């Protein structure tokens, strides 16, 4: 909502720049999409490694639960 209000202010102050931003926003979003996907995958792999690393400590800490 905040970004929409900023865009409306930009539209009032400088409408050509606001229209350029409106056209370029989807293109920038598409260019950055692969980086977001890689970030999610790397985050998942790091969480898996952390879970495997801390598994013995969690098993020793809670006796009787497997």
Q: Structural class, from secondary structure content? A: mainly alpha
What is the number of E strands?
Answer: 0
Cα gyration radius (Å): 23 Å
Helix content range: over 70%
Largest sheet: none
Number of helices: 2
The helix-strand sequence is HH
Give the termini distance in whole angstroms.
Answer: 47 Å
Strand content: under 5%
Average pLDDT figure: 90
Unreliably modeled segments = none
* C-alpha geometry: elongated
Strands, helices and their partners?
Blueprint: H1 2-13, H2 15-61
Helix pairs in contact: 1-2
What does this structure look like?
The model has no long low-confidence stretch (mean pLDDT 90). With 66 residues, the protein is mainly alpha-helical. The protein is built from two helices and no strands. The protein starts with a helix and ends in a 5-residue tail after the last helix. It has helices at residues 2-13, 15-61. It has a domain at 25-66. The longest helix has 47 residues, at 15-61.
């Amino acid at each position: 909502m905040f970004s929409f209000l900023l865009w409306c202010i930009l539209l009032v102050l400088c409408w050509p720049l606001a229209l350029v931003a409106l056209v370029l926003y989807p293109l920038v979003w598409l260019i950055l999409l692969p980086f977001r996907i890689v970030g999610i995958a790397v985050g998942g792999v790091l969480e898996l490694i952390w879970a495997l690393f801390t598994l013995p400590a969690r098993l020793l800490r809670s006796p009787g639960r497997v």
